[in-house]
Amino acid sequence: MKIELYYDKECPFCKYYANYIKLKQNHNLILINARDSKKTIDEFTKHGYDINDGFIIRVDGKKLYQGSDAIIYLNKISKKKIYFNNNKFFKNFIYPSAKLLRKTILTLIGKNSKI
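Now predict its structure.
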């Protein structure tokens, strides 16, 4: 299985999570800085995905997941699991809070939160 993970390498949280996931042992995981992949990000946008709303993963060149769905998918197939007591709570509260924190941190360190 080939998994491309598009993330914001300038975001400390995104960078940490991308390095943490460590799927390479069982899957072909390719980490891609979304800021360096304008053409692909524009392609995703045409299909209704906005990188500013969170990670985007593409599995085997076909299936796309974004944001909390991407993290839940990666967690499901990963050896190192983050246990969510409730995926609905994660999707509706934790992930939106993390997105707001990401925006705030990038602003504080002088980076543009929009890719």
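The longest helix spans residues 87-108.
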